[in-house]
């Protein structure tokens, strides 16, 4: 048995079925002309379908009247019967053709809307998200939209139209007992289906959660493939995923068993209804109150009605499942972006690129503050470096400058404009970054380089690669710039990925540059070459350097020493050494470490 579910989460009354259905209306409204035309074809198809048993009754009565004489085939009626069959097929297929554009356009729009919403959500959400689960919810959400549109428009509506036409026909031509039996059978069928399906929803809802959890665990283990191998935890990952799948299997078996109960009950109701109505019709034929053609008509009409009604049970279940599947997606849409442009936000007007932090305080959580009233200014075209121990808040400065988070106190200004009052798009267009961890798209080297400025020419991209000391490496590859880098750039080394990031920052041509441990994955020789390139690039840019290796920032115009989120020291490299404070201690320690590494290299121990 699955664990007890929270009734506030899994109860059908708590799900927003009607809200989910109303969410379909905008997708239908865009192609309302096609939808109306498709519905028109549907009605014509059902009229033709009802005409089939009526024509069959006329054929049977005509043939029965001449059963002792020479039979003259009723040619017109036979041709009419064939024409009605053809019309039903023709209008049904035409309906599907008209609605195809509506259905697939809706799926496309929902997918794009979801992706846009995910991009709008804050960095905090994406750091906490479970990629596998979101991927599964997105897949099920798009699929459920297609299911709802298809079944609501072309399964439920056709059955309703056909049932209405059949009821009118029965009431108009036959005793009320026929209509009573049909209505009673349908009412019992629908009530039984609703009751059992609501019961089954708990198992379905729990199945979805376990499926998403297992999918997330599997994808997470593959994304962290190298970590799994480092610790030899393949069996651990398999057992973890299998434990979730065992629970999913138990829920799936219960779900399947309950479906068998539902199918058996539906079949029993239909069998009783058909038997009763044929029993009454047969007695009336024997009494001479109905013709043999009437018996044929009633039998054919019931078969036409109950066959789609039997399918309606499956459709109803699929619609309920689709509504459940849409819940997680709509929950995602209800998550509002943490960072929004102000209603009066204007574009950032860059003049010189002056950067200023004024008494900035910030914490990722209310009870864990990272920065405490940090203030500094980077004049236009100058370089300021920030150093400090891990966890001091260095990289947080870059995230706040990009406005991935809102500051809790103080202001960040560019050319005296508060970044909270400008559009995020214009702000980020003015800033380039070489991050500590460079993640690349699973595409070619050229695509990843051009991503910084897609409209750039090939010559500009090549020039940026040369400046980042990357072109020679690419030229030696068999596929050159068309080499695929693998998921997250796994086919490249750490140094190669950092060169890619540097090339992209160069290509973007921003006014403000951020180097967040930009040479941390490079060896000493490569580091010096890259540093020369970075100095050339940063010459006319306002530059913020976040560094661990102090040897890379000795030329900075100002150096800021952060300790537990507070500015402890500030000055040039020479000034800070003379103060003999934290910076001087860090410098001495790193010089000792470098001397040891150099000695090990000379002795061949590295």
State the domain count: 3
Q: What is the topology, as strand order, of the major beta sheet?
A: 6-7-8-3-9-10
Number of strands: 10
CATH class of the largest domain: Mainly Alpha
- Portion of residues in beta strands equals 5-15%
CATH fold label of the largest domain: ABC transporter transmembrane region fold
Largest sheet: 6 strands, mixed
Please explain how this structure is put together.
By secondary structure, the chain is α/β, with parallel strands linked by helices. It has three domains: 7-333, ABC transporter transmembrane region fold, CATH 1.20.1560.10; 355-430 and 513-606, Rossmann fold (3-Layer(aba) Sandwich), CATH 3.40.50.300; 439-509, P-loop containing nucleotide triphosphate hydrolases (Rossmann fold, 3-Layer(aba) Sandwich), CATH 3.40.50.300. The protein is 64% helix and 10% strand. The strands form two sheets. A six-stranded mixed sheet has the order 6-7-8-3-9-10. The protein has a four-stranded antiparallel sheet with strand order 2-1-4-5, covered by helices on one side. Helix 7 packs antiparallel against helix 8 (176-223), helix 8 (176-223) packs antiparallel against helix 10 (234-286) and helix 8 (176-223) runs parallel beside helix 11 (292-333).
Brief overview:
The chain is an alpha/beta fold and 606 residues long. It is 64% helix and 10% strand. The protein has a six-stranded mixed sheet. A four-stranded antiparallel sheet has the order 2-1-4-5, with helices on one face.
Features:
disordered N terminus; 20 helices; Rossmann fold; ABC transporter transmembrane region fold; 10 strands; 606 residues; 64% helix
